[in-house]
Amino acid sequence: MISLVTSQLRHGLGRATATVLAIAVAVASFALLASTAEVSRLEASGTVEANARPLYDILVRPADTPDATTDGVRADDVASAPDGITTAQWDEVRALPGVDVAAPLATVGYVMQHVAVPVDLSPYLDPTAERQVLRVRPTVVSDRGTTTVPDGDTYLYATTHSFELVPGQPWEAGVVYDQGEVPEAPKIVEHDADGTHEDCVWGDRTGHDVDRFAPRDRESFACWSSAAPIGGVIEGMPDGATAWVGVTVPLLVAAVDPDQEAALGGLDAAVVSGQYLAAGDGSTPGELPVLAATRGELDQQVELAVQRLPADAARTVLSSRTVSGALDTFDGITPVRGTDLDRLEIDADDVHARLLATLAAPPGPGGPPWLDVPSTVAGPDPSTVVDAVRTVGSATPGPVEVSGDEWGTATRDDAGRDPVPVTAADVLTRPVARHAPEDPGASVTLRAVGTFDPALVDAGPELATLPFEPSAPAGASGADDASTAALGDRPLLPGSAIGGWVAQRPTLVTSLDAVGSLAGYTRSGEPLPVGTAAPIATLRVRVEGDVGLDARSQERVRAVADRIQETTGLHVDLLVGSSTAQLPAQVPAGSFGRPPLVVGDAWLRSGVATAIVTAVDSKSLVLAVLVLVACALAVGNATSSAVRVRSTELAVLACVGWPRGRLFGLVLLESLVVSAVAGLCGALVALLGAPLLGVTLVPSFVVLAVPAAIALGAVSALAPAWRASRADPGSATRAPVSHVGRAWSPRRVATLAVLNVARAPGRSLVGALALALGVGSVGVLAAVSVAFRGAVTGTVLGDAVTLQVRAADYVAAGLVALLGAVTVADVLYVAVRERASELALLGAVGWRSRTVGRMVLVEAGVVGVLGALVGAGAALGVAAVLADDVPRAVWTAASAAAAGGVVLALAAAWWPVRSLRRLPVARLLAAE
């Protein structure tokens, strides 16, 4: 029997080669795909496990906090939480067994700080002019350039004559002066060429009945002399022709426990200058020690337009005796137009660096140069005095109504400062309340004890950074094409409008012990939360020991959370295995150009890591089953075809007396030999193809290739061998085609091709099903990639894992599609061999070989269209499960996959069509 098998394989070398090729491709595909799926599963599981535990395991919030929704916990709800946890409850949590760290966080609020940025105007002065006026027009730009707000102009009066300071008369405390007895204020006098004296004005508009947001009421005026610079007559003033542009910066202050914060995120290790906060620090009355971030995150630039006013503008200044009078000269009913000289920009990083220098400087005399008359009384720098502002609640989808008294009505406070940024007049999406000390004469001065680099603070694993953590970057990216384009494909960052959609992260950090100095700040009798009995907004709890995704770790965390809730009654959220998801949110249009936006709102979803691991394991199992089915179809069809082609030989053997058992063994043995050779070839193909495809082979799958091929060949040969041994010799010599009840003569090649496909429905369906598996796989993956952007899970961790396993998915889909094409080619080849006599007869009666080849191509197209429709329908069905409304992109992807399946089927017909040229027409006709 072995010699007969050898002889049969040698004489049917073409058929054996085709069978070996089909099985080798199936075996190589199995080895490559199984290895790819396993490696990607291990990589994905490793990524998930490395990012499963965030910086802390349990988030503790006030008792009245709403429960998490199906979308999770909104990050802004946590970041904007004002208060609600007492220090006694914090102590109880720290004392519980299993608690390693319990770090409190109290959101103190915003403090408004001024930065005076010098603008050198000396290059723009006309050296031939005796007197001249330059104007600097600032425009605050934020929200990625979509918001532009004009601010108050700054004027510089330059003269070639000298200045003199006339001190004026001091005020006596407690004395009420009559109108004619008011002491004369200090003034600056200009000496011109003939010795006369005229007043020069200096400072800002004053008054308590002006609009603090109107650019006209935020203007300032300064003088400079080339003969005797102002610095020569007033101590501390600049000598150069400098305009000082004031930029208001809101800084968010948070209070922490220094020891717990150092243990949680290593804030102490992030200090780059000065020293770290100390427990009990802040005992000095009137001071608030802070640790300042080395960089800000505000999206705020100030664009400056430098202009020269007409010559007569300088002469009119001489007739003015007040700042308001001089400014009214330029922006009255008929504003004075200037000539543009240059455009400059004040960078946010430069502003923050100057702010840090101001906070770190010791208290001393004087103040910013834009004050009415610089004070010579020693005291704290007014630019560091706290003006506390609170934001209440999280951002809402629409604008928030804010009553007029929340910002106050005066342009300045008693210190001569204007603490409100001009952008605060924009549409607010969260309520804002301004707090002032109960004692009007009281003040708290910021004192920077050191600076810290936010990048050096431990925020946890990269893919598990909590979106509401103070060290997490702030920002909201566009969630639709219009918003992305409006923002320049950049995230929407916090601006100086503290009531804006994106909340600022803390820039100043102080201690809970020191923040008591703000306890006297109230609004309508309502104290700041830091002055209440429950100042803490959240507690961040880390459990002792290692915590993973295993059931034992999860139970330990859950037990600690249950004890916290039972002991304190506070709300707890489990964070292990959570990840950030971006949900679309509507941001209303602004008052200064920003269009309505749809941005990604950060939410925290729990249990994501476990869900991803389960999904990856399920996907690997599905891919393994898919490739096994495709391999079984390819091998089964190849083996069945090999037996079917030899049906005449087997019938002859049955006629000469071969028993059924021997016929069965002959077919089975031949299949085993071919399968073993194919298995070795498939293993070799896998070894050679893995580097080209970038696949890391798993040795066990390569070793398994040969026995897997033999097993598949044996199983696939059972049915054909059984049919060969059981069928009578007469039936074995007939082609396995369907019986046609009524004779019909087709008139077209396409019609004949369709009839040929229908003659062997089982074989045709096998080819179509194999191709449908490949088309469906490619269609589903393309739909996910195009329509859902690969973010099947919609979370940061899920997106990262999806990117890792996507390559493996496409390798799998490509191999399955290749197996489908091989199966279609084998189906067509067997059909050509079975109908060889018919095709020879067609050639004998005048059919051209090109026409016969076109008929075979049409048969391939029919099988391809059938498989493509089934596969594309399956892809659309999966897409419908993933999304309620299947997007147009999914239809496009499924259609492209279907078209590709048809092209593959037509390409698979190349070898069967080529074999038509080698048909022995004369011998076949003689046999008939």
TrEMBL record:
<dbReference type="InterPro" id="IPR003838">
    <property type="entry name" value="ABC3_permease_C"/>
</dbReference>
<feature type="domain" description="ABC3 transporter permease C-terminal">
    <location>
        <begin position="811"/>
        <end position="920"/>
    </location>
</feature>
<feature type="region of interest" description="Disordered">
    <location>
        <begin position="394"/>
        <end position="420"/>
    </location>
</feature>
<dbReference type="GO" id="GO:0022857">
    <property type="term" value="F:transmembrane transporter activity"/>
</dbReference>
<feature type="transmembrane region" description="Helical">
    <location>
        <begin position="12"/>
        <end position="34"/>
    </location>
</feature>
<dbReference type="InterPro" id="IPR050250">
    <property type="entry name" value="Macrolide_Exporter_MacB"/>
</dbReference>
<protein>
    <recommendedName>
        <fullName>ABC3 transporter permease C-terminal domain-containing protein</fullName>
    </recommendedName>
</protein>
<feature type="region of interest" description="Disordered">
    <location>
        <begin position="467"/>
        <end position="488"/>
    </location>
</feature>
<feature type="transmembrane region" description="Helical">
    <location>
        <begin position="621"/>
        <end position="643"/>
    </location>
</feature>
<keyword id="KW-0812">Transmembrane</keyword>
<feature type="domain" description="ABC3 transporter permease C-terminal">
    <location>
        <begin position="622"/>
        <end position="729"/>
    </location>
</feature>
<comment type="similarity">
    <text>Belongs to the ABC-4 integral membrane protein family.</text>
</comment>
<feature type="transmembrane region" description="Helical">
    <location>
        <begin position="765"/>
        <end position="790"/>
    </location>
</feature>
<feature type="compositionally biased region" description="Low complexity">
    <location>
        <begin position="471"/>
        <end position="488"/>
    </location>
</feature>
<feature type="transmembrane region" description="Helical">
    <location>
        <begin position="889"/>
        <end position="913"/>
    </location>
</feature>
<feature type="transmembrane region" description="Helical">
    <location>
        <begin position="663"/>
        <end position="689"/>
    </location>
</feature>
<keyword id="KW-1003">Cell membrane</keyword>
<keyword id="KW-1133">Transmembrane helix</keyword>
<dbReference type="GO" id="GO:0005886">
    <property type="term" value="C:plasma membrane"/>
</dbReference>
<keyword id="KW-0472">Membrane</keyword>
<feature type="transmembrane region" description="Helical">
    <location>
        <begin position="810"/>
        <end position="832"/>
    </location>
</feature>
<feature type="transmembrane region" description="Helical">
    <location>
        <begin position="856"/>
        <end position="883"/>
    </location>
</feature>
<feature type="transmembrane region" description="Helical">
    <location>
        <begin position="701"/>
        <end position="722"/>
    </location>
</feature>
<dbReference type="Pfam" id="PF02687">
    <property type="entry name" value="FtsX"/>
</dbReference>
